[in-house]
UniProtKB/TrEMBL annotation:
Keywords: Cell membrane, Membrane, Olfaction, Receptor, Sensory transduction, Transducer, Transmembrane, Transmembrane helix
Superkingdom to which the source organism belongs: Eukaryota
Protein name as catalogued: Uncharacterized protein
Source species of the chain: Anopheles dirus
Signal sequence bounds: none
Molecular function in Gene Ontology: odorant binding; olfactory receptor activity
Location in the cell: Cell membrane
Any one Pfam family match given in the protein's UniProt record, by short name: 7tm_6
GO cellular component, one term: plasma membrane
Lineage: Eukaryota, Metazoa, Ecdysozoa, Arthropoda, Hexapoda
């Protein structure tokens, strides 16, 4: 696909920016008609229809509730993308300015290798979401085709219900027995699946690539410090100081960009996990549960990836501090020693990605989320 082709190995976040424009959020001040159409469509057919669903027993409440929470999660992420779109583009521009500088051959080779790896991951992730969307749509379609074939051969007059990919009251249409109503419903649900896939793919490709690119800048800064040889010139020190300062600026901007998204991610994560696990336990194993399992796998991978990349960011940022301490500052001139001292002071503050300035986003936090989700799941299991 030409959309996923990358011509320049130095290009920063090409796939993420393309996905953001595809979602209807280009880098301009025009009214985002496509974006608001998708939001309206998703709200009308993805949220309202679930509120219309009649809940007559606790099991139905859990089933509808788990899908409702996931739909609200998607709607919140749409709003978050809209609110932070300008900061996203600004951060991409800052990252481009940082990588467009002149580096040594070794650092340049490392940058090309790391950036190519980031861009390839973005391409693979986009293809993965395409496959997920196709699978989510195809499984109930194939199952319903089989049901239709059996109904045509059924001579008793009793008709099997069509397989619906998601539990909702589609404006009181008979989507379980009327083929025309089911076709309308299935087309709408397919569009909802595509919108949801684009939302998650855009968010994840952008956020993951931004975190990894900022991590790469800390690696480059640490390499620049290690390349300094005594006695270093004033120009060399100024170059390293500027690189360190700009990298910290990129991290601060990254923290601002991800605050909303990370808070939404961690807030909804525990609720969705425990509800969906309980949903699967109650319903059993069938085609509907396979679809729900796909959503659970996506959410688990998203949260784990955020925490993993957050941990890597902290570790690579700490390499700058280590490199500064290993620097033979005592062989430098007094003026350069002062500059190095100020860099060491700035590097003492831990670089930790935070969700809403409240929770750290790292592997330890992911373990806590798993424990809390399991505890909530056990409580729901005992109650019902």
């Amino acid at each position: 696909m030409k959309f996923l082709e990358i011509d320049d190995p130095r290009d920063v976040l090409p796939i993420g920016c393309r996905l953001l424009r595809l979602f209807g959020l280009p880098n301009d001040s025009s009214l985002k008609y496509l974006f608001w159409f998708q939001c309206s469509f998703f709200f009308i057919f993805g949220i309202i229809t679930r509120f219309l669903t009649e809940i007559d027993e606790p099991i139905t409440l859990v089933c509808v509730g788990s899908e409702m929470v996931y739909s609200i999660y998607l709607l919140f992420q749409m709003g978050a993308l809209y609110l932070r779109r300008n900061d996203l583009y600004h951060l991409v521009d800052l990252l481009k300015e940082c990588v467009d500088r002149s580096y040594s051959d070794d650092i340049e080779a490392s940058f090309i290798r790391l950036n190519t790896k980031i861009n390839k991951s973005a391409v693979m992730y986009s293809k993965y979401f395409m496959m997920v969307a196709i699978t989510y749509i195809a499984m109930p379609f194939i199952a319903t085709t089989v049901v239709c074939a059996r109904n045509m051969r059924n001579s008793t007059g009793e008709q099997e219900e069509y397989v619906i990919p998601t539990e909702l009251n589609f404006f009181y249409l008979d989507i379980r027995h009327n083929l025309l109503h089911y076709t309308i419903y299935f087309v709408v649900v397919s569009v909802l699946a595509v919108i949801g896939s684009i939302v998650l793919c855009t968010k994840d490709v952008l956020d993951f690539s931004l975190i990894r690119t900022t991590t790469m800048l800390f690696q480059i800064t640490a390499m620049q410090i290690r390349e300094l040889q005594a006695p270093a010139s004033q120009d060399q020190i100024i170059t390293v100081i500027r690189s360190h300062r700009d990298t910290l600026e990129c991290f601060n901007k990254l923290q601002k960009v991800l605050n909303i998204a990370l808070m939404i991610q961690l807030t909804f994560c525990t609720a969705i996990w425990c509800l969906m696990l309980f949903y699967i336990l109650i319903i059993g194993f069938d085609s509907k549960v396979l679809n729900v399992s796909l959503l659970l796998v996506i959410l688990t991978y998203e949260t784990q990836s955020y925490c993993q990349y957050g941990t890597q960011l902290t570790e690579k940022a700490d390499e700058v501090r280590i490199a500064l301490h290993q620097l033979t500052w005592y062989d430098q001139t007094v003026s350069i020693q002062k500059e190095i001292f100020f860099m060491i002071q700035r590097s003492q503050k831990p670089i930790v990605l935070m969700a809403g300035k409240l929770f750290p986003v790292n592997n330890a936090q992911f373990s806590e989320i798993v424990k809390k989700s399991y505890s909530c799941y056990i409580v729901l299991k005992d109650v019902f």
